[in-house]
Amino acid sequence: MDFVTLVVVAVLAFVLVAVFIMRQKAEYGAQLQQLQPKKPKQFGIYTTEEVAKHNKPDDAWIIAQHKETKEYRVYDITEYVPEHPGGESILRNIGGDATEGFHGPQHPVTTFLLADEYCIGKLAEGEEVKFRSKR
Ligand code: HEM
């Protein structure tokens, strides 16, 4: 391959990657735009025992500790499972504490805005969270 061909291939590859990234961003932006509160939320206070009952892909709750407030929030992610860009990895700790994965480097800051949509409340004071669901 001569130098000119190499440059052309490199430029094409760059354009392809750039287009891909821009499309992903646009899609995600559109998703965020739809983030209007669908219905007034009623937040609840839950025990880990209650959360642990929701450990199936079609009934999936997780606990994740909020970085600033340190409170343990409960999320009902059932409707989000099929949309999760990280696929089924989101199911790894359903019914339990998913804090580590939730705050992983794969998640852009906007994830936490999106996640707010699925927050249904928090854990009761004094609940032990260092447990894994028994899936
Ligand atoms: C742009 C949006 C998102 C992207 C690109 C994304 C991507 C990913 C990827 C790649 C993983 C797998 C990490 C691994 O295998 O170690 C993951 C895990 C996870 N994601 Fe997302 N995600 C997104 C949004 C969300 C949202 C909105 C939520 C919550 C409603 C969420 C909750 C989780 C959880 C809880 C895990 C880890 C489960 C565990 O390890 O227990 N993600 N995500």
TrEMBL record:
Belongs to the cytochrome b5 family. Pfam families: Cyt-b5 (PF00173). Residues 43-124 form the Cytochrome b5 heme-binding domain. PROSITE patterns: CYTOCHROME_B5_1, CYTOCHROME_B5_2. Keywords: Heme, Iron, Metal-binding. It comes from Edaphochlamys debaryana. The keyword Cell membrane does not apply. InterPro entries: Cyt_B5-like_heme/steroid-bd, Cyt_B5-like_heme/steroid_sf, Cyt_B5_heme-BS, Cytochrome_b5. GO terms for cellular component: membrane. This is Cytochrome b5 heme-binding domain-containing protein. The keyword Heme applies. PANTHER family: CYTOCHROME B5 (PTHR19359), CYTOCHROME B5 TYPE B (PTHR19359:SF95).
